[in-house]
Design brief:
Blueprint: H1 21-34, H2 42-53, E1 61-66, E2 72-76, H3 85-100, E3 108-114, H4 120-125, H5 127-150, E4 152-153, E5 155-163, E6 169-178, E7 180-183, E8 189-191, H6 199-219, H7 230-242, E9 246-249, H8 256-267, E10 277-281, E11 284-295, E12 301-309, H9 310-318, E13 329-333, H10 347-350, E14 372-381, E15 384-389, E16 393-396, E17 401-403
Antiparallel strand pairs: 1-2, 1-14, 3-6, 3-9, 4-7, 5-6, 5-13, 7-8, 10-11, 11-12, 14-15, 15-16, 16-17
Helix pairs in contact: 1-2, 3-8, 5-6
């Protein structure tokens, strides 16, 4: 089973956030970058810089004022980098809110498909090609299975993850799979009452299709590899064929919003949650992780602390920075943007009494509980403080002005 297949989303963090990644990067990044353990890619530099600047004055801030008592409140801008743990949580909640309005009124399943760790070096040398293959093969396997065996147009939302609990390389894809769909015969919406699926057959097809894709790329001379010859390559492929591949299926959930909550943490979740950082002590950082191989007397998974020097921690973390323009969340079958879903079959339209949870972005005054109203945005331009007003006028502190184009 995938290491993170049974984790659940909670709106209130269980632990208090005492440390930040930015703090650790600020203290040790320059030293590490002078003599890195591995080559630092441009997107990795960009991610680190974004995390260090996130919610600082360098990115600017919005000023709010209480309409009742006049007290002001500042919100510093976030970096919006996909790798930033500060930004990812709210993005996850917003994504979940959007998805609740787009799911079919059928049960859904959480499915996880994982690559053997022996494939890690090859995938990382061919990151775009082979991670694309993992997403496509996994999702199409589920949609084709339901279409060919049951005649149903199912929908899949797939999310790529590259990390395990210890931030080791652990390549797998989480999927929300509609356990039912629109019938190709009569166009009606049908749910699958029986959760049974031929697990071994599905796993075998997943393995065979992925190995076939690797062979295709290899024999087209498009695979970046270190095999001495074809014989060595085929021996490697034979070992993979005999390896135990992992496919995990959760029981169907009848209410799609439950599935969204369940898998929501995987959509835009950063590699590490800052709530799991337990200590920063000089050159060392410690964080909590679950050991799925060990359980306590009550049968619960044991949680442990891992302590790492920054020379170990930084390369471990940075290997999970997504490659530029790579879509980590993708939609297939009925949930593909090109697919036309009959709106009357959406869960939100068949259950009018159930209102989707709406994120409340209203800011209340700490002094009088009055509503805080946006007044202005302050940004830094060439070491000068500028104020951007809602009237689209840009004025600096010296009363110079610059009209915004458009």
């Amino acid at each position: 089973m995938c290491e993170c297949a049974t984790a659940k989303l909670t709106t209130t963090p269980q632990f208090e956030k005492k440390f930040t990644l930015a703090q650790f990067f600020d203290e040790h990044w320059e030293n590490y970058a002078q003599n890195p353990k591995h080559f630092i890619k441009p997107e990795q530099y960009k991610a680190v810089n974004a995390i260090r600047l996130c919610r600082t004055d360098a990115l600017g801030k919005d000023i709010y004022a209480c309409k009742d008592c006049g007290d002001t409140f500042e919100i510093r801008h976030n970096c919006k980098n996909r790798f930033c743990p500060t930004c990812s949580w709210k993005d996850t909640l917003k994504w979940g809110e959007r998805m609740q309005k787009s799911l079919l009124a059928v049960p859904h399943r959480h499915v996880v498909m994982t690559l053997p760790h022996s494939l890690n070096p090859l995938v990382m040398r061919n990151q775009k090609e082979l991670t694309n293959a993992l997403l496509e093969i996994s999702a199409n396997l589920m949609t084709n299975h339901l279409l060919k065996s049951l005649g149903l147009k199912a929908g899949v939302i797939a999310v790529l993850h590259t990390f395990g609990e210890k931030k080791n390389l652990h390549l797998h894809v989480h999927m929300i799979v509609s356990w039912g769909g629109e019938s190709v015969n009569d166009g009606t919406l049908k749910s699958l009452e029986n959760p049974y699926i031929n697990y071994n057959q599905l796993k075998e097809v997943f393995k065979n299709k992925y190995l076939k894709r690797i062979r295709k790329v290899y024999y087209k001379n498009e695979l970046n590899h270190r095999f001495e010859n074809e014989m060595v390559f085929e021996k490697f492929m034979e070992k993979l064929d005999n390896h135990k591949w992992i496919l995990h299926l959760e029981p169907p959930m009848k209410i799609p919003t439950q599935v969204i909550t369940y898998i929501g943490r995987y959509s835009k979740r950063a590699c590490i949650s800052e709530y799991k950082i337990t200590d920063i002590d000089g050159e060392y950082i410690s964080f909590r992780h679950k050991d799925y191989k060990e359980k306590n007397a009550q049968g619960k998974i044991v949680e442990k602390i891992l302590k790492l020097h920054y020379n170990e921690f930084f390369p471990l973390l940075l290997q999970h920075v997504p490659i530029p323009y790579f879509r980590l969340v993708r939609y297939y079958g009925a949930y593909n943007s090109r697919s036309k879903i009959n709106k009357k079959y959406l869960f939100i339209n068949q259950n009018q009494e159930i209102e989707p949870e709406i994120l409340n972005d209203t800011i209340l005054c700490k002094s009088c509980d009055g509503e805080m109203i946006y007044t202005q945005t302050e940004v830094n331009r060439r070491n000068e403080n500028w104020v951007v007003y809602k009237k689209l006028e840009l004025l600096n502190r010296k009363n110079k002005s610059l009209k915004i184009a458009g």
